[in-house]
Write a structure and sequence with these properties.
222 residues; three-stranded mixed β-sheet; four-stranded mixed β-sheet
C-alpha cells in the first residue's frame, strides 16, 4: 500500500484530523470511528482523572499549551508543552498511567509514540530547522521516555493519517478489537458494546456490562 509522505498536501477542503484522534486510532480503530465519525464521546473516571492532571500541571507552571495546525500534514492539535533543551526543541506529552515495559528500559506505548510524533511534526513545521526530541511523561510511574522524531516515526504518522482518512470516509463501523483487555479500560465500551458484538458473532462470552441500568439521578449541590 502506498502511504502519502508527511510532505504531501492534504486534500483541499478536507477537514484536518485531531492529533489526539491518532492516539485513539492506534489504540482501536472502532474507538476512533465512534469518536471522530459518529461523534460519540463518553467521559469516565479515567478521562476526568487525566483532565485533572493537565489542569494541575497548568496551575504548577509545568504545562504550556500550544495550538498548532498544518494543511500539509492534515493535522491540528494542542501540544502539552514545547521547551528548549540545549538547542533542541522538546515536545512533551503527559500521561496519567504507566509506561510500557521494555527489554532494557521503559518505553512509550505505540499510541503515545504516535501522538507525540504527530505533535513533533506540527512543531517542526512551525519552527523549521530546529532539532526535535519527543518525551512522554508517565506520572503513575514517575518516568519520562525519550525518543527522536526519526524516519520510522514519520512514516507511522503518515500511515495513521492515511488510515484515519479512509475510516472517516467509511459508512460502516470497524469490527471490535480482538484484544479484549482494551475493551475493559475503554470509556466508550458502553456505547461500543464489544461483548454483545462478539456474542452476535456466535461466541458465548460473559457480558461486560449488566443488563439492568439503574440510572439514578445524582444532584450535586457544591
Amino acid at each position: 500500500m502506498n502511504v502519502p509522505s508527511t510532505s504531501q498536501k492534504a486534500v483541499v477542503g478536507e477537514p484536518s484530523i485531531r492529533t489526539h484522534a491518532l492516539h485513539a486510532l492506534a489504540y482501536c480503530e472502532r474507538l476512533f470511528y465512534l469518536e471522530e465519525v459518529e461523534e460519540l464521546r463518553v467521559a469516565d473516571a479515567a478521562v476526568f482523572a487525566g483532565r485533572r492532571l493537565h489542569v494541575q500541571l497548568q496551575e504548577e507552571g509545568e504545562r504550556v499549551e500550544l495550538e498548532l495546525a498544518s494543511e500539509a500534514l492534515g493535522l491540528h492539535g494542542r501540544v502539552d508543552a514545547v521547551r528548549t533543551r540545549e538547542g533542541t526543541l522538546v515536545v512533551y506529552e503527559h500521561k496519567r498511567g504507566r509506561h510500557a515495559p521494555g527489554r532494557e528500559a521503559p518505553e512509550a506505548w505505540p499510541s503515545d509514540r504516535l501522538q507525540a510524533g504527530a505533535y513533533a511534526l506540527l512543531v517542526e513545521e512551525r519552527f523549521p530547522g530546529a532539532p526535535l526530541e519527543c518525551r512522554v511523561r508517565y506520572h503513575q510511574t514517575d518516568t519520562t521516555v525519550r525518543f527522536p522524531l526519526d524516519e520510522a516515526l514519520r512514516r507511522d504518522v503518515a500511515a495513521a493519517v492515511a488510515r484515519a482518512r479512509l475510516l472517516r470516509a467509511s459508512r460502516e463501523r470497524p469490527p471490535v478489537t480482538q484484544e479484549e483487555r482494551k475493551c475493559a479500560k475503554c470509556s466508550l465500551a458502553p456505547v461500543c458494546l464489544p461483548e454483545e458484538e462478539r456474542q452476535g458473532a456466535g461466541e458465548e462470552r460473559p457480558r461486560l456490562f449488566p443488563e439492568d441500568d439503574v440510572r439514578q439521578v445524582l444532584h450535586v449541590a457544591t
